[in-house]
Amino acid sequence: MSLLLPSVLPFGDLAVEETWLAFDGPKLFVARNRTGQSFLFNAIDEDEESISYLAVAMSEKRRAMVRSGGLGLRAAFTAPEGGVFRVTCDYELGEARAELVEVERLSDAELPTDDAYVSVPTETLPSFHPDTLASRALAEGRTLVGLRLNPPTLARSEYPVRPLSDALRAMQSLAEAMVQEESGTTTVRGPLPAQVIEDGELAVLDLEAASFVAILAPSRSARSTPSMPSLGFEMPTTAAALERAHSLLRAVASSEHDPEILRSSIQGLGVRAVTKIRDLLEVALDQNTPLTVYVAPPGGPVEEVRVSTGDASAGVLVLSERDASLEEIVLESAWIVGVNLRTWVFELHDPTAEPNKFSGRVTEHARSQIEGLPTGEAHRYVAEIVSESSFSDLTDEVKVRYSLKSIRPAGEHVAGVNEAKGDDATTGLGGHPAPLG
User: Do the beta carbons of residue 84 and residue 56 sit within 8 Å?
Assistant: First the structure.
């Protein structure tokens, strides 16, 4: 049967714009009239002669929230922006009737279930177009950088604050390290020179949608005062540093298939620069997102590089070869305290090691190995841990962080513990990893 829609007010002349669920025709869909008003239709009853819908008007903001799963389908009808209509389309008569209904009188049978939602990637920010970076860079007289993040959980162009801050902080640190490389005064640890910090400072200009994109540029705040504004020309070392960082990321993008390109590219780089590149890649791995970086110098073309999670993982291994602060530790009798399968943070204890407590990030390689392993002292494992020592940017204080490289059962569990406490008592979750955080 052909789709029959109401034409009475407030609907007007409707056309289906997007179908979210179809079975012998659209059942959950959005229709728009000639004035631009959108309506959500959800089929609630159908037979050979007719079909009934609940229909509700939606603003573009509401549509984006429902479309992306930010607002459940039931709430779209029980907490509407306007009226809710029951629409009955009679195929025999060829007409559609609509009546305004009170939300309180809607039955559970007419409404979507509490857990029903739509999940379609949805832009809620202005669209990002890489080619516009070039014209904007020329107009503003400074290099622009686009940092695109696209984790699989991103249904709309919103990004959690903490992961976003980690990504921006890693990009800022890389910019400073590359400015220091360009200045020829590299240091391994301790505070950066004030001039390097000033020249390498980045500013967030915009957030745009192509997944999620942060538009960055060299900051003018440090070189401007109310009485002496910036003349609009960036420092040459800053532009060169951003170009060099982009070149290194291009080498990383090939590291999964040809790691020698990256090894050759980092020859002559200082330890700080190598570490900061690795930190940026580890942020991408932590957030399970490919990393796309655009660099647009004034008057030049936009350069784009995309680093997949596979490239990032391979790149981290290559970059770690140059870092004397890394040490591999093999735990022979470790037990899992817990693992967070969303953030991939782990904690292991091994009474035979020093120190005996290890917590940090599960590498991509080890994630399939640790998932589903029982926790508690009754279950022992052989684990390969990478220990990374780093120095504070402000002091010479040494900080240590751990990464889990691999894990496998060490053999039979500790005698007596499992029998005394039972499987559930040792894990808290019936033998599955206990949650962290």
Answer: yes
Q: What is the pLDDT of residue 31?
A: 94
- Contact at 8 Å (CB) between 119 and 155? yes
Contacting residues for 159 by C-beta, under 8 A, at least 6 apart: 149, 212
Q: DSSP letters of 288-303?
A: T--EEEEEE-TTSPPE
Decide: residue 280, CB within 10 A, 0-12 exposed, 13-18 middle, 19+ buried. buried
User: Helices 236-252 & 271-286, crossing angle to 10 degrees?
Assistant: 60
Output DSSP code: residue 209. B
Task: Yes or no: say if 424 and 431 are a contact pair by the CB < 8 Å rule.
Answer: yes
Q: In 226-300, which ranges are continuous DSSP H helix?
A: 236-252, 259-265, 271-286
CB 88, CB 76: distance < 8 Å: no
The answer to whether the peptide bond before residue 259 is cis (omega within 30 degrees of 0) is no
Burial category of 94 from C-beta neighbours within 10 Å (exposed 0-12, middle 13-18, buried 19 and up)? exposed
* pLDDT by 10-residue block (mean), the chain, 437 residues: 78 92 91 92 91 93 89 92 92 90 92 90 86 89 92 86 94 93 74 84 92 89 48 68 94 93 90 89 93 92 95 90 74 94 91 89 91 93 86 56 91 45 36 41
DSSP for residue 156: B
The radius of gyration computed from the CA coordinates of the chain, to the nearest angstrom, equals 28
**Chain centre distance of CA 362:** 17
Say whether 159 sits in a helix, a strand or coil: coil
Give the pLDDT confidence score for residue 184 in this predicted structure: 79
Q: Tokens representing 219?
A: 């900051």
Residues sharing a CB contact under 8 Å with residue 162, sequence separation 6 or more, in sequence order? none
Q: What are the beta bridge partners of residue 329?
A: 385
CA distance 155 to 137: 30
Name 121's Cβ contacts closer than 8 Å, sequence gap at least 6: 68, 154, 155, 156, 211
How is 107-143 classified by DSSP, letter by letter? -TTTSPPTT------B--SPBP-HHHHHHHHHHHTS-
Residue type, 340: N
The pLDDT of residue 390 = 63
Contact 74, 116 (CB under 8 A): yes
Specify the pTM: 0.66
Angle at the Cα of 333 from the Cα atoms of 329 and 337, rounded to 5 degrees: 90
All residues at 6 or more sequence positions from 49 whose CB lies less than 8 Å from its CB, including other chains: 90, 91, 92
Residue owning tokens 């997007």:
18
